[in-house]
Structure formats: structure tokens, C-alpha cells
Amino acid sequence: MNFGEEGFLAQQSKEEKIKKKFRVACIQLIEETAQRQSTEIVDTVVNALAEATFSQSRILAKDVLQFAKHAKRASVSEADVLLAARRNADVQSALMQLQQKGGENQCMKRRRKDKGKYIEPDEETDFATKEI
Amino acid sequence: MAGFKPELLGELFKLVWEQQAQSEYETVLCLDEENDKRGNARTPTASKEALRLSAELLKLFVMEAVDRASACAKAQGDDQVEASHFERILPQLLLDF
After folding, report:
1. Do A78 and A105 reside in the same domain of the chain?
2. Model confidence pLDDT, tens digit, residues B6-37
3. Based on the domain organization, do A82 and A117 belong to the same domain?
4. Which among B55, B56, B82 has CB closest to A45?
5. Given an 8 Å threshold on Cβ–Cβ distance, is A52 in contact with B4?
6. Are B12 and A48 within 8 A, CB to CB?
7. pLDDT for res A132
8. Which of A9, A25, A64, A85 has the fewest CB atoms within 10 Å, counting from its CB?
9. Pick from A40, A88, A99: which is nearest to B96 by CB?
10. Domains in chain A: how many in total?
11. What pLDDT does B37 receive?
12. DSSP per-residue letters across A49-103
């Protein structure tokens, strides 16, 4: 870790790059969601929501690391993220469903490896190809 | 469908943790050399599954915000979602996440 001024400046530009990519993804998601609901959102609100989401993700990063440290782990796991979602039961159950689907996918991959039979992955649960 | 890439979140998490470690180093190191020698030099990581769930969590945050703000706008009879609608739903949104 570089703690000098150069390190600080390098970190700043890294943050700007990440924030830019994040904003792009966020704005795309906002516009897609608004389109599906046939509503229009003014630019100031789109920007404000993108900022709020970025701040929320920073808070999430700090929270999940603290949870992992509390459990005496060096690596953040799914359990930490689920704990971060504890405030809203619907959010938590949505994440748990996603987690279970991910688990099923893993099982199918393992079966393929063991028995040599090719099993088509379920289209709905193939998350690896869904993200843009 | 649009969403957040887990890899991007991984980079963001690492950045936040570095910044956090740096400010801890500046305030605490002089007093806590034992702790630093022991294990804080190891940079924390996040599992792929954790990043995937985090991406989904943030996506839910955004979608929920848009849903609530547009419902608020419709209830007031406005066609566009404006700052006042967003301001109205923001407190409860932040409490729920």
C-alpha cells in the first residue's frame, strides 16, 4: 500500500474510473426500469439516484467487510451480503432465492464432471451470461 | 437485462477497503503495531458469490427507487418523475436498505 502523495493521487484517479463505469451501468439500469414502467425521469433525479447508489455501495463494502471480520474471516462471503440485506425481509428473500439458484447450478456442473453425461443448464438460472 | 458487473463491484470493494485501511493506518498505527504485524497486511477479498449477490442487492435498490418514485409521481398526477417525488421516497428507501 502506497501512503505517499503519489499513492493518494493514483487512488483518486482509480476511484474516478470505477465511479464512471458504475454510473454508466447505474444510469442504464434506471432508464431500462423507467422504460418498462412507461414513466419518464428527469435528468437531475437520474443523477441523484446514481450518486445515492454509489454511496450505498460504498456503505455495503464497509458493512460486509466488518461482518466478515466479526466472523473472523479474511474473505467476504455470501452470508455477509445476506446479513447486509437484513433490514427488508423481501430483499433478503429475493437474495436467498438467487443464492439457492446459484447453488443448483453448481450441483449440475459437478454432476456433469462426475458422470460424464452432458446436462443442459437451465436457461433461467444461467446467470453467467445474463449480466451486461 | 441491465445490471452491475460483479467484477466492477469487486474493484469498488477493494478500493473502499484500501481507503479504509489507509485512514486506519494514519490514525491507529502508532498505537497498534501488534495488530498490524499480525494480519492487517493481508488485503481482504470477496468471493464470486458474494459479489454476485451484492450486484443483485444494488440492482434491487435502484429498481425499488424507480418503482417508488414513479408510484409517487403517478399518485400526484404528474407524468414525469421529478426531484420532489424522489425526495419523498428517499428516507424510507434508505431505511429499507
Report:
1. no
2. 999 999 999 999 999 988 887 765 555 555 55
3. no
4. B82
5. no
6. no
7. 46
8. A9
9. A88
10. 2
11. 53
12. HHHHHHHHHHHHHHHHHHHHHHTT-SEE-HHHHHHHTTT-HHHHHHHHHHHHHHH
